[in-house]
Design goal:
The protein is α+β, with helices and mostly antiparallel strands. The chain has 2 helices and 12 strands, in the order αββββββαββββββ.
């Protein structure tokens, strides 16, 4: 009898731990971080804290992607995306914590260090994230990579959850769907 109560206690504790862990990984596309959500663009060229969790880049360029057309990529050719839950006016970041693991922010050490190829430099700015890093924006929209894009020019993040979109050189979202083997759901 005592052994049964002991095992039952372990099972209840395990279920509670599992429920708490799953609550921390909640679905949807919103922020799971608190504090300053990066409202307002950064005006100075102050450096980001070391140990950034984003995708550091110093170049924004363009690439032709089948079925999407011309998209913005980082200096290594990885497609950059914007998130519908963010905003451009004013610039607001809403992808933190678990979201930012799957969608790392395109970061830089400072606004002045971002070079452009095929993109109007006047549309490029930065926003300070709540972790102190500096995220690159295009036409006010914060930019991200998709962790499942493991090769340059892969648009697996296109249309994920109906909220993540590849970006045109002018900062507009591209809403053309792309059938891919890894994409389609499972975003954040």
């Amino acid at each position: 009898m005592v052994a049964i109560r002991h095992v039952t206690g372990y099972a209840a504790t395990g279920a509670a731990v599992l429920a708490l862990a799953l609550a921390g990984c909640g679905g949807g596309g919103g922020s799971s971080g608190g504090g300053d959500n990066g409202s307002g663009t950064e005006r100075s060229g102050s450096p980001a804290r070391s140990g950034t969790t984003g995708s550091a880049t110093s170049t924004l360029t363009t690439a032709e992607i089948a079925k999407l057309g011309t998209v913005v990529t980082d200096g290594k050719g990885y497609v950059l995306y914007r998130f519908d839950t963010d905003s451009a006016n004013p610039t607001r970041v809403s992808c933190y914590d678990t979201c930012a693991t799957l969608w790392p922010a395109a970061t830089t050490t400072d606004r002045g260090s971002v070079t452009t190829k095929g993109i109007d430099k006047s549309l490029v700015s930065t926003v300070k994230r709540n972790d102190g890093t500096t995220q690159i924006t295009l036409a006010g929209w914060p930019l991200y990579r998709y962790a499942k894009d493991d090769e340059p020019k892969e648009p697996y993040g296109q249309g994920v959850d109906g909220t993540w979109w590849a970006v045109t050189p002018g900062g507009a979202k591209i809403t053309t769907p792309v059938a891919t083997s890894q994409g389609g759901g499972g975003g954040y």
